[in-house]
Amino acid sequence: MTATLAPVGCSHRPVSNLVTEKVDQLFATWDKPGSPGCSVAIGRNGQLVYERGYGQANLELGVPIAPTSVFEAASISKQFTAMSLMLLVERGRLSLDDEVRKYLPEMPDYGSPLRIRHLLNHTSGLRDAFLILELSAPEDEFGDRNDVILKQLARQQSLNYKPGTESVYNNGGYVLAAIIVKRVSGQPLAVFADANIFTPLGMTSTRFQDDPSVVLPNRASNYYRDAGHWRFVPFGRQPGAVGNSGLWTNPRDLLRWASNLANPRVGSASLLADMQKPSAVTSAEGTAWGLGFERAEHRGATFVGHGGGDRGIDNYFAYYPQQQLAIAVLCNTDDTGSRQLTQRIADLYIPAPPEQKAARAAPASPAVTLSSEQLEGKTGLYREVGGDSFVRAFVRDGELRFALGTGTFESFRLVPVSETRFTMGDPAFALEFTPPARARVLRGFAGGKPTGTFERVEPFSPSPAQLRAYAGVYASDELNAEWTIAEHGSTLVIRRLGNADTVVEPLATDMFTTVGDFMTFSRDARGTITGLTLTAAGARGLRFKRVNR
């Protein structure tokens, strides 16, 4: 199927049957009745060259996915939130270097300027807003979600890091960005984006959905797999957050947006170029994030894009400026690998560079065979030197595996190339354990350069009396919540209002963990426990005081 991307006009560019057959083969798994699936659109040089739906938009009614089907875009929304703010910048209504508190005076003064730019390029240092919501006392479920998130973030008296010094993906920053759009323009993000982006570009199937009662024509339902059955993801009564997500669209409209990146009709060329540039941070690692876009390479070609995922959602949009190639894959289930699918489609249009072909032909370091004792000598929990990150090495089915965090849920197979050195599938990524017999230090390498050093954490098996000392009530002003910590067999549980008990396992003296998060108990000079500090992915240093009852 071919068509023009422009709002008007009828020019066409045919695509070869060979290419369409290969694209169809990529989605064959979902191209059947009784299965959710994906909608795909491919554009070259500003024209739509192929689009097709695979699978069903609604399993209950047997409605097939079509090019007109509308999907929940999740984090693909961020580039349109960023664009809305950038249009206000271009019109002189604000500056990216303005402090956030100029427009959101509710936010605390962190002692270091938190600027609008930091919200958009994931360098704000803000704690993860959605984790904070999960950990906090329950709020009115029918309140405006963006207002609830602002209220919770305004309670946080510290950041994960000084703004501009690190890059950590952050959804809450985009919720604050959406609120700033509303306060500066006088219009909700949904209204502003529709009038200033979607309507001018002919994106007639795209909108920010801040009211769940509004009918969305051609909406695809979301599904996930559980115990061998498809489960429906309800479209809840409560309005969801907008800014970080909340967008509904289809691939055809996303290609209209890609055409605007190539030949701007909304926003200037310099504005759009600024959005696509990787942002600067003062840490050594740098960042691939621009303003609403990720910048990366595939087959030696630079692309900008963004993914979007959640329960029942798996999306990716990619635009290759040099090749004038745009690809959008939107799926109504969460196990499709949409980013990889866009790259495999790109492979049909972008030849592999000579150096990549040579790398494929180059032999990797040969694997060696290690005894079970040699493998076991590497197992254990390791903590980052000078940091709060953990990794774990463990043996499963006779192989050494590596997991980020304190658990073993998601792990990578390690291939030994010597008694102390292992690769992680790609020879460019390696781990080194020293000394070989019972490792105490673990070092990571990427492309031959060190990426981090971790030291072994000695196991802790508390006695009943030691466990009893931790039991009590702990309160956090930042979360507006109280937690009760109680003994539970050989470990502890956290009890909090509106939630099931959470089991926490001992890591080290005064340190316990659950699902990758960990909490450290603090003591006074007499050794009495006075509080705890929770460190979680996206929320560092949440403090609780022990409450005397």
Q: Could you characterize the architecture of this molecule?
A:
This protein is of the alpha+beta class and 549 residues long. The protein folds into 3 domains: 72-354, DD-peptidase/beta-lactamase superfamily (Beta-lactamase, 3-Layer(aba) Sandwich), CATH 3.40.710.10; 372-456, Lipocalin (Beta Barrel), CATH 2.40.128; 464-547, Lipocalin. The chain contains 13 helices and 31 strands. The longest helix has 14 residues, at 172-185. It starts with a strand and ends with a strand. Mean pLDDT is 90; it is low at 1-12.
The average pLDDT score comes to 90
Instruction: Please give the count of helices.
Output: 13
Distance between the termini: 70 Å
**Shape, principal axes of CA atoms:** globular
The CATH class of the largest domain turns out to be Alpha Beta
Strand-helix topology:
Elements: E1 3-4, H1 17-26, E2 38-44, E3 47-54, E4 56-58, E5 63-64, E6 71-72, H2 78-90, H3 116-120, H4 129-135, H5 145-155, H6 172-185, H7 189-198, E7 207-208, E8 222-226, E9 229-233, E10 247-249, H8 251-262, H9 269-276, E11 294-298, E12 301-310, E13 313-320, E14 325-331, H10 338-347, H11 354-361, H12 372-376, E15 380-384, E16 390-396, E17 399-404, E18 412-413, E19 415-416, E20 421-424, E21 426-434, E22 441-446, E23 449-456, H13 464-470, E24 472-476, E25 481-488, E26 491-495, E27 502-508, E28 511-514, E29 517-523, E30 529-536, E31 539-547
Antiparallel strand pairs: 1-3, 2-3, 2-14, 4-5, 6-10, 7-10, 8-9, 11-12, 12-13, 13-14, 15-16, 15-23, 16-17, 17-18, 19-20, 20-21, 21-22, 22-23, 24-25, 24-31, 25-26, 26-27, 27-28, 28-29, 29-30, 30-31
Helix pairs in contact: 2-6, 2-7, 5-6
